[in-house]
Amino acid sequence: MNASYSELRARARDSLRGNWGKAVGGFVLSLLMGAVIGLINYLLPFLGNLVSILVSGSISLGLISFYLGIARKENPPVSEVFSGFSLFIKAFCLYFMVGLFTFLWTLLLVIPGIIAALRYSQAYFILRDNPDIGIMAAIDESKQIMKGNKWRYFVLQLTFIGWAILAAIPCGLGFLWLAPYVSVTHAHFYDNVTGRFPAPAPDSF
C-alpha cells in the first residue's frame, strides 16, 4: 500500500528523532567534500572538473547509503557518507550512464528530461542494497519501480517547497536541516515503493 506524502514525512521525522545531529553532520561533510572539489576547480579548472565527474557518483551513493541507514534505524556512522567510494567504479559508471540518458532525453524537450530523471531516481538506492548488481540492471530496476510512481515522487518534491522557502530565509542555514529531512523522506519513499516496511529498532540504553 502506498503511503501518503504526510506519512512518508512522518516516518522521516520519526527516523530522525535523536539523529538530527548525525544527519546534519553527514550533510555538512558532503558540503565540505564539495567545497574541496570547488577549490580544486577554482585553482585548476580542468582537474577540478575531472575530479568532480569521477567522485560525484561515489558521494551520491555514500549519502544515499547514510540516509537510508538512518531511515531504517540502522544507526549508521557519519563515516558512512564515504561508503560509496568502496564501489567507486560502479558508482562512477552509474553516475555517467544516468547523466547520459537524462541528457539525451533532455535534448528532446525539458519535460522528457524531467521524466527521465524521475525514472532513474531509485538507481543509487538499488545499488546500495544490491552492490553486486550490474549498472544497467540497476537502471532497469529503477525504471520498473518508478512505473506508476513518477508522479508521486515528483509531487513529493513539491511538498517541500514551503519548507525550502523558510529554510532560505536565515541565510540558507535552514537547509542544514531540510536537506537531511528530504533525503530521509526519499529513503522512506524507496522502501515504500519496493514494499519494504522496516520495523522500528528497539531503543537501547
Automatic annotation (TrEMBL):
<keyword id="KW-1133">Transmembrane helix</keyword>
<dbReference type="Pfam" id="PF06161">
    <property type="entry name" value="DUF975"/>
</dbReference>
<dbReference type="InterPro" id="IPR010380">
    <property type="entry name" value="DUF975"/>
</dbReference>
<protein>
    <submittedName>
        <fullName>Membrane protein</fullName>
    </submittedName>
</protein>
<feature type="transmembrane region" description="Helical">
    <location>
        <begin position="50"/>
        <end position="69"/>
    </location>
</feature>
<feature type="transmembrane region" description="Helical">
    <location>
        <begin position="104"/>
        <end position="127"/>
    </location>
</feature>
<feature type="transmembrane region" description="Helical">
    <location>
        <begin position="20"/>
        <end position="44"/>
    </location>
</feature>
<feature type="transmembrane region" description="Helical">
    <location>
        <begin position="153"/>
        <end position="179"/>
    </location>
</feature>
<keyword id="KW-0472">Membrane</keyword>
<keyword id="KW-0812">Transmembrane</keyword>
